[in-house]
Amino acid sequence: MNNSFPLNTEKNLLKIRLIGLNCTIIYSGKEFTGQIIDETRNTLKILSNNGVKKIPKENSSLIIMINEQKYKIDGKYLKGRHEDRIKHRMKRKW
Asked: Is 88 part of any domain?
């Protein structure tokens, strides 16, 4: 993983770089499993067995596995570019 700070709290989870992580994205009742290859302000591109899928962040849920722990993140909290998420303080809503 290519992150510069320890993942010791769940609030740091929103600040990690998503590119390169293996995940499962749930969108419109469908599950897409694979590796995140690109992230834009509003979408994630995931490389799955069926090819590259472009999925909007707004109405999706992301399940990632880090250090043998599963984390579920609502996509609306990931809205914005990675650089912008690091700058802003976010209040936890879970």
From this structure: no
CA-angle at 18, arms to 16 and 20, nearest 5°: 125
Angle at 33 between CA 28 and CA 38, to 5 degrees: 90
Domain-located, residue 1: no
What is the pLDDT, as a whole number, of residue 90? 52
Least confident of 12-16, 33-37, 82-86: 82-86
Domain-embedded: residue 71: yes
Cβ atoms within 10 Å, residue 30? 10
Looking at the whole model, is its pTM more than 0.70? yes
What pLDDT, on the 0 to 100 scale, is given for residue 32?
Answer: 93
Dihedral Cα 72, 8, 80, 48, nearest 10 deg: -50
Question: In sequence order, what are the residues at sequence separation of 6 or more whose Cβ sits closer than 8 angstroms to the Cβ of residue 14?
Answer: 73, 77, 78, 85, 90
Cα-based distances in Å from 25 to 78, 86, 88? 13, 22, 24
At 17, the amino acid letter reads: R
